[in-house]
Amino acid sequence: MLAGEAAAEAARKSASELGEAPTGAAVEAPPEAAEPEFPVPGDHRAAAFFDLDNTVMQGAALFHFGRGLYKRHFFRKRELARFAWQQTWFRLAGVEDPAHMEDARNSALSIVKGHRVSELMSIGEEIYDEYMAERIWPGTRALAQAHLDAGQKVWLVTAAPVETATIIARRLGLTGALGTVAESVGGVYTGKLVGEPLHGPAKAEAVRALAAAEGLDLARCAAYSDSANDIPMLSLVGHPYAVNPDARLSRYARERGWRLRDYRTGRKAAKIGIPAAAGLGTVAGGTAAAVALHRRRR
Q1: Angstrom distance (rounded) from CA 258 to CA 270
Q2: Cα–Cα–Cα angle for 119, 121, 124, nearest 5°?
Q3: Distances, alpha carbon 201 to alpha carbons 14, 158, 279, in Å
């Protein structure tokens, strides 16, 4: 609950600082994305919540962000090797071992400790242009634009750091972002988190907290995700969508009559559909795991 409340507070703060997101400068929606019966134009008690990795963006955002940070010498090869082992174990085992996740999180926090928030934000802007902009799914972007065109707010909800998520949301013209909150004092990272990473049930808590603060009716809201880890968030809303879903979410969605959207094809879908490095909870944590994943793909 602490992680969710912290994410909701950070999201509302960043959205108020940025002002209302523009709704007219987005990518034009392809015809197949049109849903005449939904979203409902003018329904201001409705909003949309989008997972980021493999839902809005191809692959993990932290993977792409990690390439930029490694290029800028934020961590060394020794640290890279350690994260690579942890990520490889996670990929092979298919489960999130608590001891491994805690170790990765602590190591990652030690890397960002002492860096200024403004420094990471500035670098994040550059990295978005270098690696992320061309990896946005046009189909999912069109779904988000449909909500904006209907006069509704649209939020990213991700385990990625809230700073990274906020940059992506702003570049896409969305309202704001809910993400993992790393503690900072005087604009400098302390090496601690506020609560836990925004992952699984924590995402649902964040959406619930934001909906309460914004006066939203969750039964009229929509949520979009590719992962079964986000079933708690998807189950909160009246309009859940499975986008580029993993096998478990696909089965779950079909059993319940949820809408499905898949913008992948063939072998590309298999490659992109692998679990992201969720749960590391900080910029550098996900980064290192992401760079390791990039090395394996090459």
Answers
A1: 22
A2: 110
A3: 23, 12, 12
Question: Exposed e or buried b for every residue in 187-220, given b needs 16+ CB within 10 A?
Answer: ebbebebbbbbbbbbbbbbbbbbbbeebebebeb
Choose among 206, 208, 211, 210: nearest CA to 195: 206
- Residues designated catalytic: 51, 53
Q: Are 210 and 178 in contact (CB under 8 A)?
A: yes
pLDDT truncated to tens, each residue of the chain (298 aa)? 666 666 667 776 766 665 544 443 444 444 554 444 589 999 999 999 999 989 999 888 877 877 787 788 887 776 656 655 555 554 454 444 556 555 656 666 777 789 899 998 999 999 999 999 999 999 999 999 999 999 999 999 998 889 999 999 999 999 999 998 889 999 999 988 888 888 889 999 999 999 999 999 999 999 999 999 999 999 999 999 999 999 999 999 999 999 999 998 754 444 433 333 333 333 333 333 333 333 434 4
Task: Please check whether residue 53 is in contact with residue 59, taking contact to mean a CB–CB distance below 8 angstroms.
Answer: yes
The token pair that represents 8 in the structure block: 């909701």
* Spatial CA neighbour of 137 closest among 56, 62, 61, 64: 56
- CB-count exposure of residue 226 (10 Å: 0-12, 13-18, 19+): buried
The backbone torsions φ and ψ at residue 14, rounded to the nearest 5 degrees and listed phi first, read -65, -35
According to DSSP, residue 45 is labeled T
DSSP 151: T
Q: Which two tokens stand for residue 124?
A: 């994040």
Tokens read off for 34: 């049109």
12: left (phi over 0), alpha (psi -120 to 50) or beta: alpha
- The sign one gets for the Cα dihedral 49, 52, 54, 58 is positive
Q: What is the 3-state secondary structure (H, E, C) of 4-38?
A: HHHHHHHHHHHHHHHCCCCCCCCCCCCHHHCCCCC
